[in-house]
Structures are given as C-alpha cells and as structure tokens.
Structures
1.
Amino acid sequence: MEQLMALAQTNNCCIVNVLHQNKSEADHNMRGSIGTELTNKAFEVFTCEYIEEGDVFKVSHTLSRKHRLKKKLYYQLSDEGLPEETVDYQEKPRDAKGRWVSSATAKTVANSEVKWEAFNQRYIHDHAWNIPLLFEDALENKSSRPYRQLMAATMRLGGIKDKNYFYTLLSEAEKAGVIQLVKHPENGETWVKLLSNQLPI
C-alpha cells in the first residue's frame, strides 16, 4: 500500500484498484486482507452492482475522505460496450439484510386501494393500461430501441416490478400492432420497433 501511495504522489496520478466483494449477505466488504488494507488507505471507495431485473449497473459512493456523493449512479452498456447513464431508475427495494423484498405487480396494485404515483396515472385509467402511450414514451422519441433498453424504460415508467408482467404487456402491445420485434441488420440483436413510426433502424 505504501508503494502504491508513493507512486501516486511521485507521478501525480490516481491509482484505481478493482476488487471483488465478499459474497455474504451480511458482509459486502472488499475481499481478503488486501481489501481491508485498500479500504484503510483509499481516498474514495465505490461499489458496483449488477441489477439483473433491470439489466442495469448501480454505482454507490461508500467511502470518502472529503465529500461523499449520496446519489447513486445507474447505467447500462451500449451496443458498443460503453456505459450510458440510466436516469431515475426505480430499484426494487431490499430488506435490512440486503435481500430483495417482494413487491406487488402492476396488475395487483392497479386493483388495490394503493394511491398511484403521477407517472403511473399517465398510463393507467380505470385499471386499464394505455399501452400505446406507455411504449411510445419508453422509446423516447425513437422509431426503435434495443429490447433490453426498452424493457428497463417501460418497467421504470410504469412502476412495473415483475418481469413476467412486462412480458404480458409486451405481448399485448404486439397483438395490438403497437410495436414489432425485429432483428438489427448489423449485429442481429433484438430491437423493438414502433409501428406508428416507419423510420428505419
């Protein structure tokens, strides 16, 4: 650690170390004695976690010797493998031990007395989804979008926590002629095309 700190000071540079965390739900510290020493000497510590349900990565600022950032950063990888920020991603809640907490599906909530947030009210009226509007907003003024990006955007906009329920809405949108699943001509990746907009991919 002293040698790394001396190198950073001599060369006036930042040295970034990447380590795995412990797998225990109760202990997410950096692994091993190296992890302990790096944590003790580090100026800044960030943790990165993959959230499978939304196909996004979450970055949290966990330690700082100066100013700690409270806001978490969410991002996805583009087709070129570059990070792209995902704005206002709604993460599924966890309990005190870090385990996922089960939440009601959008269908269950729609039939309950739970008060909907403003973004949900935009897409649901009398317990029925406005599917064209939901998918049009999720495409963000584009004629088509990669499937995984559209899925994350749709679930975020609609407050949908259950992937299976998203698949149901996607199927209904296809049957209604709102969208169409297509293969990208260059990389063969699945994209979702808005049928009301005939611009090419």
Note: The chain has seven helices and nine strands.
2.
Amino acid sequence: MTSGPGTTRPSQLLARQLRGDVVESEHRGHLVVAAANGRLVGAAGDPDRVVMLRSVGKPFALVALLTAPGVDGLRLTDEELAVMAGSHSGEDAHVRVLSDLLARAGAAASDLVCGTDQAPPLDAATAARLARAVEMPGRLRHQCSGQHTAFLLLARLGGWTPAGYWTPDHPSQRAITDAIAALLGTTAGSLPAAIDGCAIQTYAAPIRDVARLQAVLADPAAAAPALPPPTIAALIRIRDAMLTHPTLLGGTGDRLDTVLMERLPGRITVKVGAEGLAGLALIKAGPDRPATGVAIKIEDGDPTGRALSAVTTDMLHALGLLDDRATADLARFHTPTVADSLGRAVARTQSCAAELLSP
C-alpha cells in the first residue's frame, strides 16, 4: 500500500526494541491526532498514508444496521452493540449475547463464515478449558462473529437472503459500503476495498481520515450538519455501548483496548485492528479538551503487538489522559518486555512517538 498523491512526508520512528542498551529493532509508522472537522491537531509521519481499516472499521459498519428501516423492532441492547462493534475474545459472555442475536435473526452459528468451528478463541483461558473438555470452540467464539451476526441481522431487516451475505455484491455489504463511504466523505464507487481475514470487505482511507472518524465517534454531534441526524444518533449509541461494555468489545484478559477503556471509564474508546492499526476516540472533557481522534499505524504490521501497545499507551500519557502512576501501572503495555528461558526480562520496547508529535 502506498501513500496518497502528493505525499512528501516519510514514516517516523515510533518505537524501539532494546536488548540491554542496544537498539535491536525499530518500528516506524504514522500517527495522527485530528478533530471532528478534519483539522490536524498533530501528526508524526505521513497523514496521507493510506491504510486498510480492518477491524478498526467495525464500529462504523454498525451504522448501516442502526439506520436500517425496522431496526427498532430488534430491540438491540448496548451489550449486543458492543459485541458487534468489537473483536471479542470468544468467552462465554460473548457467546451468550451472540446466541440470542442469531436466534432473533432466524439464523444459526453454522451460517457464519467468519471462521471454522475448530478455530480457538482469543482468550487463552477459554481455549485451554475447551481443549481439556475436548469441546469444539464453534464459530461464535471467533473474534469477528459479532460483526458477521450484524450482517445477518441487516439481511433480515432488508428482506434479503442470508446466502452469500459476505460477498461484496450482497445488499448487506453494499449498505455497509455506502455507510462507511458517507462517513469518509466519498462514494461507494470511489472507496478502495479488499477482502479482510474473515472473508468480508474492508476499506482503505488516508490515516488522517481514520483519525477524523475517531473524533466523530467521540462527539458525533460535532460532525453536524455534515452527517444526517439518524447517523449521528447511531454513532452515539455505538460509542456509548463501547464505553459501557469494554469487556464485551474485547475480553476479560489482557486486551489492550479493554484494559485502556477500563482504566479511563467514559473517557475513551479504543479499537485495535490487524497489521498494526489502532483508532482512539477521546471523549470531550470540557471546553478546554474537545473531542479528538487518534489513529496509529505501525508500518511493519507489528505482528506481536508490542509497538502498537507501547505507542498507544505513550500517546495517552502525552495527551494527559494517563498520569505517571497510571502509566507505571500499565507498564506491561507501555514498556512490553521479552523474557529469556529463565523468565528474566531481557528486552523491552520503548515508544518514542510522543516526542515526535508536531502540529
């Protein structure tokens, strides 16, 4: 993936892996802080770098469902919205919520194409328990089953066949493409798309627009009149569900998004995506702290998540949401370590993103 036309700013060094005092590895990337109107509050790297939304787009895809005719009849709860907006860990609480949703959609877990019945859930304790019991995890434990359940609900509301709900030309997917394109200020025909890891479409946008979307999620009303009232109402419901139920968005284990949202209740939503992408919506906290959005992209994809974890936590500290004590309490995220065969911490990841942030 390349940057947009006219781009001149290179990626920046965002994190280092140190073994002893030696820099062993480096993670470069891009970071943008933006307001709901698109104004850049700060940036490191290239604000026009095009990124794939991946799971960071899940909350915004829900707009298509919440603005569909007849959605009120589904009586969707905040718990259900949180699971559908997230990449959950596949714990029993997630399965219970989704089982009820599928029943109301007149569908079954076997209708989902997000993953196989054999795929273990993200939650290690749940995966170990199922393995001991020689129990198949089932598709509901897949991290994307919430989003796929939303697609089936959308098909039911539209009176469309659920068959092939994941294909780009299915009415459910077209409705989602239209919703995300509108949020990005473009048209469905102009929105770059590709196939995600769970078989459905994902979309591409400049990282400045990803940050702007996060600011809009933080304060949807600030986007008026650019967005119609039903879209604003939908975003408010999605945001509040995420704020209220962070464990249903992620899980009870050490999930970065869940832990940060629990540490800052009512003040932030966090959504991590694949290939080193994260979106943060910072809720308005008075006239001197308006709502803002943060988007972070680690160029190398950050397969272990160490750089994204360090940079995300560091940014929250730099922006004043985490004080020194809270940051120290979150050291496992702020300065992730690597242990040797004897269990000793022998390497650590340090963020250098905050010092690079510039208007």
Note: The longest strand covers residues 22-34.
3.
Amino acid sequence: MFINSFTSCSGCISNLISLDIFKDLLEKAEIIHFPFIMDNTKIEECDIAIIEGCISENEQIKLLRQIRKKAKKVIALGNCAVFGGIINLSKEKSGYPISKYIEIDGIIPGCPPAPKTLGNSIFQILENKNIKLSERNLCYDCPLRGNLNKRFDKEIDTLITEGIIGARAIPKCFLEMGVLCLGPITREGCSYECIKLGIPCEGCMGPVKKDYTATVVNFLSLIKLSEDLRKYDGIFFRFSKPDIER
C-alpha cells in the first residue's frame, strides 16, 4: 500500500493513524510508502494508493500520474483530494481534486472523514471491495429534523449561530431559524458532529451526486438567501470551485 499527501493540513492522515483499525491496516497491508512513518520515497508498484490532499502545484501532477501508473487502485482520502479543499477560499491559489488529473477508484470524503466512515472504508479496502458511501443527505436522520418544513420560506441571512453550544439548545432546523445549513445537499456520513455542537452543516462531505459547486448554486437558488450572503463567495468555494479563472 502506498499512502501519500499533497497540499493539505494532514488532518485526514492524522485521523487515519488514530483509528483503532489502523493497527489492522499495518498487519494486513504491506506499507511501501508513507512519509508520516517511514523514509522510503520510491514510487513502487502496489495494489492500493491512498492519496490525501489537493493538487495546487504543477510538479504535483507528474508525481500523481506516476503513482497512478504504479497502483492498481487509487483512493482519494478527504475533502481536499476528493473536491479540491478549503484552499479554494483563497483568491491567489486553487486546489484541484486528484480526479482532475487521473482516474480514481474510490473516495472517502470529509474534512476530515468521520471515524466511522473512514473505518468502514478502510475495512472495505482491506477486503478488496469497492467503497460504499451513503446516498442519503444529511437531513435524512438529522437530530434537528423534527417536523421539517421543506419549503424553507424564511429568509436565510446568517452563516453561523452565536452562543449556542449543543444541538439540544437549538429548537429547530437551522434553515427554519434563518441560518444557512447545507444539510439538504450534503451526503450523510459525518455522524452529525457539527450539528451536535450547534454548528450548521458546511458541506464537507460533498454532494451525493454531481458537481460540488453546481449543487450548491442550485440549492441556493431555491431558498430565500439574503443579498449579503449572495455576495459571499465563501459559500460557493468553501471546499471546491469551478475549473475556470475567477
């Protein structure tokens, strides 16, 4: 197994190392490249390559393609590798998903991926199975779902809540409170960790289907978003942005 990081905060790799199942990974898979724990820098043939981080420099493209040639399967680990990542909030740099440059065989989304999703994905990799992710959105089983009003008539004028700690202190769905939450278009699998802390979903698990930014744009066109929030690029480019000049 080949594990490599490109432009990232290394949070996804850190989560991987902290999993209880990581010891099983070390026992069942021969790790031939993993800068976090070994010095070998050679790119050798392997069954599986797990790649963390986005592509933000031209020299990274060559290395990525070399890895693809040597690996039977390539898995994108974390939001940066899957969608491009939070670097896209920058007006100076862009981060691209590894799938822009090579074919991939699976994704493990999240910023970082939730332990349950990451652990299940690693199990599936070790059993030589395709990674299976939920095809339901975050709202499906959200702790704040209650009697959800799907019309979302209230104007959305707030990005985050203030002074709320824990979902129990929140009376209803964020959207019904006028707080932007991307739960309706975000894949479930994060264990609702942000929601439980009283923080609305920012979409780090990405959409269930289709392009990230296009999905966000379509969703925002269906709700009453305030004029101020419509001017805030961070909503659209929080974790990805179109492959065009801004």
Note: The first strand starts at residue 2 and ends at 5.
4.
Amino acid sequence: MVMELDLGTARPLLEAWLREDIGHGDVTTGAVIPAGMLGRARIEAREPAVVAGLPLAGLCFEIVASTPLSWEAKVTDGSEVEAGEVLAVVEGPLGAILTAERTALNLLGHLSGIATLTRRFVDAIAGSSTKIVDTRKTTPGLRIFEKYAVRTGGGANHRFGLDDAILIKDNHIHAAGGITQAVTRARDNAPHVAKIEIEVENSGQLVEAIEAGADIVMLDNMSPQEVRDAVDATAGRAMLEVSGGVDLGNVAAYAAVGPDLISVGALTHSAPRTDVALEVER
C-alpha cells in the first residue's frame, strides 16, 4: 500500500506555486471565460504510465476555486494506465479549472514520470530480494512529492534528509583521515540507535569499513562482478548498497549477485515527464 500524502503539508507549497503562475490574475481566462460559468473537464493520460500525484492535482483546483468544485479520481495513485485513459474528472467554476490547469498537470506529469520509471526498475529485478531505493538527488521544494512518487512506483526511500541517518561519503572520509577514523567518530558521536553507512570504492576499503563497524556499506561504481565479490566477502556482516552506474540495462545483473539495496538517482533527477492533458467537455 502506498503511503498517503500529507495534504496539510502540501497545501502551502501548492498555494505558493499557484501564486507564482497566476501572479496578479489569469488575464486570458478573465477575458475569455464569463464570471460564474460552470464547466466539466477530464484529465487524460496521453501515454502508458504509473499514476502518481492525483490528490495534489485535485487540491490545485480546490485552492483556486472560490466556490465548491467537484473532483473525482477515476483511478488511484499507483495504477498502471494506458494512453487515452481518463484519470480524473473535475467539475465546477470553469475559470478556476483553467487557471489551475497547468500547475496541476505539471505536478501530475512529473510525479507520474517518476513512478513510471521506478516501476520499470522494480519490474526489472522482480524475483530478487534486492530493493530499489531513491537518493537525495531531488528537485528543491519537491522532495516530499518525488519520494512519494518513488514509493508509488514500488520503490523505497533512502534517507529523506541529512538529519535522517549517517552516510559517510568520500569527502567525509578524506576530512576525517580515513575510513576507520570516520566510522569511529560517527560511532562515538551518533545516537546509540543510529545506523552508520559508509561509501567505499574497492575491496580493501570494504574490509576496512566492516572491521571498523559500519552497519551498511555503499559500493560506489563497482561492476556486478565486484559486487558479487563484495557480497561473498561481507558474508552478511553488513548490509550492502550498490550505487552509481546503474541503469535499466544492467540493474538485473546487479540484483542477481545479491546486494540488499540498489540506489538510483535517476529515479528523481532524470525521469521523463508523463504526458497528461486536460480536456474541457462542451
């Protein structure tokens, strides 16, 4: 089951984005559409997709409308849809519908694109015990929505922000003076319940990280064979995460050698936007 969106948290963000688009007023709609005119429109998928963001799209219309407006989702987030399928129907003040249209479609298309790409990665490793996870390579201001879209597509979330977990990267290691020093300092200063993850680039660093007491080791830009060797060498003493250089063409090869996690930044930073459209019904 997909974790629900917190629309209370989302609302002020949507309000700000709508203000950015509307400015002092939608002059086109104001000039063309009579005040008080009612209408009905449907939102359609123009290509196959996994849908994500329908509650946000509906909230966009609700925010703009000054009078009651009807929003009916025809599918749920996480549904796989075909080209031409109706995702939702909105009915009410036509001016508000047209004013909110672009912001609603931008969010729905962007998040559905992320969910669709995530589902492709998840399906590519079906049958393995490895999980597909996202990264912090998200759009500023959109992280809560983009990570929601990853979950909607069947993936899992890595840490949400810097305050979520300890992840020691190469610059931390260099500044600390080495892997052992970095893990030791983290262990000394972290809460006792915190897990410590560290990034390594070769088998020697992997051994040092495990001996230093790391809970999770990120294997950075290693080949599938190198990951297989790392899985054998670790023998369950730490969780292993593959990161870097993973795409749809090789993700199955990585999953086949047994890492616990595969993190894919492209899920959020490079997902093609799903083509969705709003059509007013006469």
Note: The longest strand covers residues 38-45.
